[in-house]
Structures are given as C-alpha cells and as structure tokens.
Amino acid sequence: MAEPASLAPKQLGAYFALMEAVSLLQHEVEKQLRAEGDLSWIQFQLLARLADSDGRLTMTELADGVVYSRSGLTYQAGLLEKAGLITRGPSPDDERATLVTITEAGAALVARVLPGHVEVARSLLFDPLSDTDVDRLGDLMTRIRGHMRALPPRSAAPRKRRTP
Amino acid sequence: MAEPASLAPKQLGAYFALMEAVSLLQHEVEKQLRAEGDLSWIQFQLLARLADSDGRLTMTELADGVVYSRSGLTYQAGLLEKAGLITRGPSPDDERATLVTITEAGAALVARVLPGHVEVARSLLFDPLSDTDVDRLGDLMTRIRGHMRALPPRSAAPRKRRTP
DNA sequence: TATTGTTATACTCTATAACTATA
DNA sequence: TATAGTTATAGAGTATAACAATA
User: Fold this and answer.
1) Is residue B94 exposed (0-12), middle (13-18) or buried (19+ Cβ within 10 Å)?
2) Domain B40-149 grouped into CATH 1.10.10.10
C-alpha cells in the first residue's frame, strides 16, 4: 500500500466517538423497544419500514439496509408473523416473491412504541445539539450513508488468497 | 408529557441516517477484523484499549463503554485469554480486582489488524468527507458521546411499576 | 442460469441470577 | 453493605449451505 496505514488523530477520534456514541444510543433504544413493545431494533425497523411504505413490501425490499442475510430476514419475519404483526403471502407480480404486509396490530404497536422511542432519541442524541448541529449531522450522515450504499458490495474485497 | 411525541423531520432523518450508516460501517469492520485477525469488534476494542493504556487495566476499567454486563466481559476475556492475547492476574492494589494484561501476541495482533481496519474506516467513512467535515463530525460525536456518558445511568428510568 | 425465499444446523453472543471473596 | 469478578444457564440472533420453485 502506498498510503500510510494510519488515520489522522482527528479522524481516529471522530471514528471512535461515532462508534461509541451509536453503541450507547443503540443500547438504550433496544431497552426502550424491548420494555414497551417487546421488539428488537431490527424488528422495529422492519415494522417501521412497512408502515412507511403503504404497508406492503417484498422480503428483498424489506431486507435492504436492515439485515445482512436472507435467512436472518426469514427468521425475523417468522417472529413478527407469529406475533401477529405482519402477514406473508404470495406476490401477484412475481411468483417467487413473498409479499409482507403489516397488520393492524403491527401498525398499532409501532404507534404505541414510537413516542418513547422518539423520546430516547431526543434525550440522548438531540438534547445537546443546536438546530445548526442537527442540520450538519443530518447532512454528514446522509452523505456518508449514500457513499456506503453506493460502494461496490464486495468487489473491493482483497483478491481471494490462495492460502486457505 | 408536555412535549409533542415526534421529532422534526430533519431530526428523524438525521437519526435514521446515523443508525444505518453506522450499522453498515460496523458490519464491514467486523468482516475485516474477522477475516484478518479472527476478532470481533468488541474483542478488538478491548485489545486496543489495553494497548493504549500501558497494557494493563482492571476488568471494570476495561469494560467501560464496550460491554454492558459483567458476565459479558468475563466471557470475552475468557476467549481472549484462551487465544493467548491477554493474561489475567490478581491486582496488588485491590484483591477483589482482576488485572488484565495484554500479551506480546495480543499487541502484535492489534498491530497486524490495524492497517486493514483503518483502511475500512477511511474508505467507508472518511472518503466522502472534507477536512472541515471531519472536524465537524468529530466535534458533534464527541459532544454527543460526552452527553450520553454523563447521563444518569438509569435513574431516569420510569419508576418501577407495581404490576409485574 | 439467476433470483426469491425457506430450512436445518451450528455457532456466537448476551443477560440474569446465584455465588465467592474482598473493602 | 457494597463492590469485583466468575459461573451456570437459558435464550436470542446470525450465517452458511443445501434446497425448492419461479424468471
């Protein structure tokens, strides 16, 4: 590698602060969701995404940034279905696809859990931020997320080594 | 609650972008650490923290923002010890405490894994950011982390309900 | 052949509670 | 009594590979 194998101290500091802050935030968020709705963060995201999308998505659409393996989504969908929060059925457009639909109970649960969820985000994340800060944070994270999403999924991975 | 149970759209957008971006970043980081050093992110953090702190810390000091239960740390320390990356021994100052020491192998592993790790952070996180952006991100996340760390651990939790 | 989704399985990790020992 | 750490155990979640069905 031609590049030096280090980040500037500022970058390193930003990186660790980011990771730790989000870890703390996620931990509190999970606690709130579990306590008030018996949901994991992933399950909440799946439901919220459905609620946002007219209530129906295919499994693949649903998986997008939330889950990193097909079987993981099947597992989570199984739990949500068992709990009566979603329904799975065949898709008219593509017979391979499964269409996931949020139930009334699912939508109600999201609505019930949301206020507390929002309160956690506000008190932990937004409390120390000014309006300008929020703008900047949103701008930065939106750009970063876009960059990450656009990256070649794994073509940049190191060429497969021959030594197993 | 006197406050409206919603976040401004800007806040909501920033929140979800933050959570998704870090989720993507963490996933790639874990892949790199697993591939190049057979380490989880948590294990890497523990080793890195030790390497940063003259090589020895008590379990409690080590746990700080990294792990959220005592037994979880004992479990991870057990793995690291079994792999020869750390050593555990009694503390001279407090006989209740366990003093964790990083081994040469542990320090070497951190050194071996670090370049790839840094490269992931650079390409995913810092690539789309200007110097000013990095400053702002660092400032924001440092403040947010400080705010979260300062919060009353759980005294703000809703008073225990009487209905179990 | 490629894609969508499920299943089986094995593994990692986490958390609660009970316990020991020291401060 | 409170704190530091370990253990036992049980449950949640994850990922890989093999599979079936449709495009």
Assistant:
1) exposed
2) yes
